[in-house]
Amino acid sequence: MAPYVLSCCSTVDLPQAMLDDRDIKYVYFNYELDGTQLKDDFGQTNTPAQLYAKMLAGADAKTSQVSVGDYVQHFTPFLEAGQDVVHITLSTGISGTYNSAVAASDELEALYPGRRVYVVDSLAASAGYGMLVDRLADLRDEGMGAAELAAWAEEHRREVNHWFFSSDLSFFIRGGRISRTAGLLGGALKICPVMDVDHDGALKVREKIRTKARAARRVVDIMHKRAEGGADYAGKVFISQSECLDDAHLVGDAIEAAFPHMQGRVLYTNVGATIGVHTGPGTVALFYWGEPR
After folding, report:
1. Do 187 and 169 form a contact (C-beta atoms < 8 A)?
2. Which residues of 218-246 are buried (b: 16+ CB within 10 A; e: fewer)?
3. How far apart are CA 75 and CA 96, in angstroms?
4. 126-173 confidence digits (pLDDT tens)
5. Tens-place pLDDT, residues 35-72
6. Phi then psi for 234, rounded to 5 degrees?
7. Side by side, which strands form the sheet with 283-289?
8. At what angle do helices 126-141 and 146-156 cross, to 10 degrees?
9. Is the pTM here over 0.85, yes or no?
10. H helix or E strand, kind and range, residue 152
11. How far is CA 45 from each of CA 33, 35, 40, 182, 280, rounded to the nearest angstrom?
């Protein structure tokens, strides 16, 4: 049995099979559709297509973070088995779940003297959050200890670059991520804002570009400037998308042509329910290792 457990939330937006294969434990986020409480369970309850169809039809969609009690229930079996836990949370710039995880950690460490639950704020979202957790699994497999792994995560988390755009701004407007005036004007002018996740883990609009084809080219251009090693980038590339796989391939195909040394092929993932409730369909998000945010 491993001396510690690497854990995250379902908002890493990686395939569930990938997490299971890598022995990464996870706890489900929650969302609500028309008053019905649901788990963000990798699309098992509602596939992405079903979720967005309901949202576009007018379903009232909300999200809620993992509770202290849910974290206690998640962490307890590992501590009882004599294992410590390194848990990486969704960014505090997006959710308050980090505080719930810390409260659960404090409660459980008092009940299990000698055991530790290290809680780290990823300052990341969707498969960018997943990219950090994936690298931590590599380091765990290479023999890095729990305390060292948590410290490494805090030191390097801002090196995960997030760049994304959306061809449908309606749900960004509804969630207050983009002002109504700016969003309506942008829609009329076919503007696709190019956004990132900033130093503090919050979403920021960086550029306003007309047409999604130009926005797709722009995020690839930015990667040339920011990726670790530039055109010689040798790391992984993840792309999350919300029911717009063709748009995601516009970006991914260009990246595979421009970065011949990257590790493997682009990994395409679905934007999960928690993030998808706020973005709606039409969002493409690109993630790679590069200059710190």
Report:
1. yes
2. bbbebbeebbeeeeebebbbbbbbbbbee
3. 18
4. 999 999 999 999 999 999 999 999 999 999 999 999 999 987 666 655
5. 999 999 999 999 999 999 999 899 999 999 999 999 99
6. -120, 15
7. 203-210, 191-197, 160-166, 283-289, 238-241, 267-270
8. 140
9. yes
10. helix 146-156
11. 11, 15, 8, 34, 17
- Rounded Cα distance, 77 and 60, in Å: 35
Element (H, E) at 255: helix 245-258
Among residues 93, 90, 101, 123, which one has the least CA distance to residue 273?
90
CA distances from 72 to 83, 191, 251, 274 (A): 14, 44, 40, 21
Cα→Cα distances 241→21, 106, 237, 272, 290, Å: 22, 36, 13, 9, 21
d(CA 178, CA 134): 30
E strand intervals along the chain: 4-9, 25-27, 29-33, 36-40, 61-64, 84-89, 117-121, 160-166, 191-197, 203-210, 238-241, 267-270, 283-289
From CA 105, how far away is CA 40, in angstroms rounded? 22
* Sheet of 117-121, strands arranged across: 25-27, 4-9, 84-89, 117-121
Q: Side chain identity at 193, as an amino acid letter?
A: P
Integer Cα distance of 25 and 44 in angstroms: 17
Please provide the size of the chain in residues. 293
